[in-house]
Amino acid sequence: MRHLYTWSGILVVVSFSVVGDILIARAMKQVGDVHALLRRSGVWTVVGRVLSNTNFFLGVSAMAVAFFSLLFALSWGDVSLVAPAAASLTFIGNAFAAKIFLHEKVDRRRWIAAFLVAAGVALLAG
Amino acid sequence: MTFRKYLVLAGVTVFAVAGDSMLARGMKQAGGVSVHHLHRLIFAVLNPWVAAGIVLLLAFFASYMNALSWADLTYVMPATSLGYVLLALVAKFALHEQVSPVRWLGIALISGGVTFVAGGPALTSHARDERPFSNRAEDAAQISAGAGS
Fold first, then answer.
1. Where does residue A92 rank: exposed (0-12), middle (13-18), buried (19+ CB within 10 A)?
2. How far is it, in rounded angstroms, from Cα B41 to Cα B45?
3. Of A103, A115, B69, B86, whose CB count within 10 A is highest?
4. What does the DSSP 8-state code read for residue B35?
5. pLDDT at B46
6. Closest Cβ–Cβ partner in A75, A103, A119 for B32
7. pLDDT tens by residue, B94-119
8. Local confidence band at A109 (pLDDT 50, 70, 90 cut-offs)
9. What is this structure's pTM?
């Protein structure tokens, strides 16, 4: 029963993390290169653009849900299982989602990297 | 890639691992949280370790958003994982903890993955401009004004 709780928790954390990451990434692409914006029009333009972006708020909400689910999951399961499992599954989920929703060119190099990092994170804290 | 951009990626790495570590430590002190005792979650936030962890994770989030404005998600993600490598190295060389062969293998895999991504381009998704029209028009106006002055 405890395992079921822990893994459901991990699944919820991963799903909301991926949704949050994708929405924030899309929001920041819509805002534009922050370094160029800061140089050209100052910090308030950046803040204004971020705060007027719907994807940003949806992304932050999804990440807030992921964060509180992580707190729950951490209190149910071992940190050495929950943290790396959630992190490595989020890597794989993000690679798929970035390709589909953000039209990123996830070439062989990036797929290999996503799986190497996911495996590495799982080993490191397992 | 400029020096400032590498600095932002370093911020993503360091703030994430420091924030996560403090949060984990704080939650262990705060004890178990369940659906029936939601109020304990509020007390958990009052724990100094949890609070410090949240501040560091906010710093992580600012660097992360900065990085995502000029790089792909699949480029920035591996940078966050370098924090785990950093943590294991600190454990080994600063705290003189035993790092098992399995962990060294994990470090090698993560480092290999990051090297793979770092060798490629940071941004591949700019083929189509998906920004709202107001932002695009504003940028174009500022660029032409800059060119005129």
1. middle
2. 6
3. B69
4. G
5. 81
6. A75
7. 777 788 888 889 888 988 888 888 77
8. confident
9. 0.79
Spatial separation of the C-alpha atoms in residues B146 and A10, rounded to whole Å: 50
d(CA B140, CA B96): 55
Nearest CA among A81, A85, A87, A105 for reference residue A18: A87
Question: What amino acid is encoded at B20 in this protein?
Answer: D
Distances, alpha carbon B107 to alpha carbons A34, A118, B73, in Å = 32, 11, 22
Angle at which helix B101-118 crosses helix B73-93, to 10 degrees, equals 150
Residue pair A124/B106 in contact (Cβ under 8 Å)? The answer is: yes
How open is the CA angle A71-A126-A81, to the nearest 5 degrees?
Answer: 25
Closest residue by Cα to residue A62 from A89, A82, A90: A90
Query: Do the Cβ atoms of B68 and A76 come within 8 Å?
Result: no
C-alpha span between A87 and A77 (Å, rounded): 15
Half-sphere exposure of A21 (CA within 13 A, CB side): 26
Residues of A in contact with B78 (CB under 8 A): 91, 113-114, 117
Spell out the domain ranges in chain B: 3-148
Distance of CA A74 to the CA centre of its chain: 18
**Surface of B (18-57) touching A: CB under 8 A:** 20, 24, 27-28, 30-35, 41, 44
Instruction: Indicate if the pLDDT at residue B127 is higher than 50.
Output: no
